Write a sequence for this structure.
C-alpha cells in the first residue's frame, strides 16, 4: 500500500501506539489501515452419494477441479456466501446442512469455511468461472487434478466420515507448498484435529 484510501496521502509502515504489528498509517489523517485474512466460503454439494464439483475456468489453477467456493462478500453471512458461490459457479441451488471444515491457510492469509449442502435439483450447469460441472462418486474424484489442498483434505475427510457413518467437524492448518518435502504425516495435520458433533 502506498496511499491512504481515506485521503489519498502517502502512508508509511509503523507499529501504532498500543499495537504489536506494523500497519500502514497515514501521516496526514492518521488513519490506520489494517490488513486482515480473507474469508473463503464454499460448499460440498451432495446428491445421492455424489459430490458436485467444478472445473475452473479462471486462474489460479485453471482447468483443475474444485468445490464451489470463493471470497465472502461484505454484508453477507458465511452461509449466504456459500450458497451464492455454489449458484455462481455451478448454477446449483443448495440447502446448507452444517459447517463441515475450517482450514487456516496463513501463508496466503486465508481462512476457509466449507459447508455440507444438499442439492435441491439437478438443474446445474457451468457458471462464468467454470469450464464444466459434474457429479462424482468417491471412485470418480479426479484426485490428481484437484486445484487446492483445502479441497483435497476436505474430500478425504468427507469420504472417510461417510464410510464411518458419522460426520465430524474438521479444523486444521494447511502448510505452505514447500512443506510438502517434509514427512507425509505433516500434511495430515489438516484433518487431525476434529471433533464429533
Amino acid at each position: 500500500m502506498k496511499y491512504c484510501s481515506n485521503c489519498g496521502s502517502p502512508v508509511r509502515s509503523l507499529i501504532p501506539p498500543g499495537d504489536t504489528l506494523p500497519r500502514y498509517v497515514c501521516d496526514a489523517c492518521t488513519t490506520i489501515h489494517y490488513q486482515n485474512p480473507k474469508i473463503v466460503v464454499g460448499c460440498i454439494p451432495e446428491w445421492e452419494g455424489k459430490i458436485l464439483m467444478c472445473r475452473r475456468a479462471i486462474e489460479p489453477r485453471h482447468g483443475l477441479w474444485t468445490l464451489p467456493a470463493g471470497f465472502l462478500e461484505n454484508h453477507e453471512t458465511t452461509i449466504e456466501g456459500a450458497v451464492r458461490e455454489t449458484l455462481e459457479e455451478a448454477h446449483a441451488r443448495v440447502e446448507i446442512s452444517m459447517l463441515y471444515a475450517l482450514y487456516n491457510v496463513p501463508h496466503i492469509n486465508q481462512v476457509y469455511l466449507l459447508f455440507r449442502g444438499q442439492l435441491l435439483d439437478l438443474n446445474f450447469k457451468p457458471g462464468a468461472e467454470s469450464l464444466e460441472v459434474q457429479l462424482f462418486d468417491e471412485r470418480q474424484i479426479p484426485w490428481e487434478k484437484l486445484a487446492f489442498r483445502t479441497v483435497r483434505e476436505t474430500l478425504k475427510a468427507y469420504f472417510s466420515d461417510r464410510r464411518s457413518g458419522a460426520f465430524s467437524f474438521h479444523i486444521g492448518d494447511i502448510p505452505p507448498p514447500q512443506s510438502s518435502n517434509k514427512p507425509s504425516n505433516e500434511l495430515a495435520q489438516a484433518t487431525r484435529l476434529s471433533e464429533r458433533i
Notes: Residues 149-164 form the longest helix (16 residues). The longest strand covers residues 94-105. The mean pLDDT is 91.
